[in-house]
Every structure is written in C-alpha cells, then in structure tokens.
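To the team - magnesium ion complex, inputs and output below.
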Amino acid sequence: MLYILKKIKFKDILDIEEMKIPKGKITCIVGESGSGKTTLLRMLNDLTSSDSGEILYDGKPIKNMDSVSLRRNAVMLPQTPAIFSGTVRENLLIGLKFSQKPMVSDEELLKAMELVKLTKSLEDDADLLSGGEKQRLAIARVMVMDPEVLLLDEPSSALDEETERIVINSIVEYTRKNKKTMVMVTHSKKIALEFADEIIEIKKKNLTIPERSLK
Ligand SMILES: Nc1ncnc2c1ncn2[C@@H]1O[C@H](COP(=O)(O)OP(=O)(O)OP(=O)(O)O)[C@@H](O)[C@H]1O
Ligand SMILES: [Mg+2]
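Output:
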C-alpha cells in the first residue's frame, strides 16, 4: 500500500476509520461537493493536517517525513491551478523550478503537451489560453515533473466530455506504463468507473439542516 489512513478526523468534515490507497494503481475519489475530497487530497500531500489519526506513506508516518521530499515524490495538481503570466514554456517549467529539480528540454515539454493534447506553441502567451487549455497546461506541468505519485484534483472539470475522455485516457495510460500511482478526485462517476482500479466515495457528514435555518 502506498497510503494507509487510520482514524483520521478533520473538524466535522472527515471521519475516516481506515483507508488504503494502493501503489501502482489508479484510485478515484468521488463524492458530492463539499464532502471533503480536496481536504483529503491535501492531507496526502501534507498540505493540511488532520486533527487526529495517522497517515502512513510507504509505511512511514507522514508527520515524521520531510514535506519537501514527500512533495517531490507526490505532486499535486490543485483544483484551481495557478497559471502565471508568461509563455507556455515558462508555465511548464515552473513546477521544476519551485521544487528545485533540473530543467528539461523543449522536446520533453512537447511530449507532456502531446500527452494532454495541447496543440499550442511553447512561445504562446499562457494568459491567452482557454479555460480548458489552461487546465491541460497545468496537468502537463505536473507530468513534466515526472513524479512517482500523481495527486490530481478534478483535472478535467473544465473539459468537454470527449476531450475529458481523451486526456484522462492518455494520462492513465502513461501512469500504468510507467508503473506510477494516481489518485484522482473526479466529479464524474463515469470516468471513475471507466478508469479506476479502486473507487473511494467520500460521504458528506452533517446533512441535517439546523431547524432555525428552515424558517
Ligand atoms: N481548513 C479548513 N477549515 C475548516 N473548514 C474547511 C477547511 N478546509 C475545507 N473546509 C471545509 O470543508 C468542506 C469540504 O471542503 P473540500 O474542499 O474538501 O470539499 P470537496 O469535496 O473538494 O468539494 P468540491 O467538490 O466542491 O471541490 C467545505 O465545507 C469547506 O468549507
Ligand atoms: Mg474539491
């Protein structure tokens, strides 16, 4: 197992008795809006700490690990990724820069763009890309980093259904071929059913509406 979560509690949002995320597989996290999917993914990357309980990564408690080295192994694509002013090339390289990894050639950058079917030039102004193109640029930025573990928060939310299938299929194939691990939050049960080895459903707690708010 890559991750083992034990008795994780976070405010009144998450209460996870036990959860296991296998190594070398595609795990999809589904659940309604506000159920805690992003919070859970952030915990896997040590960006949010639980109030109690323990998360093991490769058998070691995350809280004892150096979070910088954890985040080199497990790279997260945020739900709303930042696109920086500048070229497509600069945006693709910025992940490597932030994590102080060596830069890669244009050829590698073009491969990552091909993976997400982004047909733009490296010189293009990133600000001018469409919403869905920016989302694919952000996925490509993660692919350029070539991490062991991909933590993707709704990577295809801005894509039409056909482009979504093509892009997810492509990154899933890449993950399987290179024996990497993917944990993907998705609102699409269809995508989860088609591509996941494991599906984890997060249920929303406290669905009861306080009486006074009904008046
Ligand atoms: N640090 C925090 N402190 C308190 N509440 C938080 C914190 N982070 C998130 N929340 C709350 O936890 C709930 C779950 O948020 P989260 O972003 O994990 O949901 P989600 O399942 O990813 O939703 P969506 O599908 O809309 O992205 C929300 O109500 C949010 O306001
Ligand atoms: Mg979310």
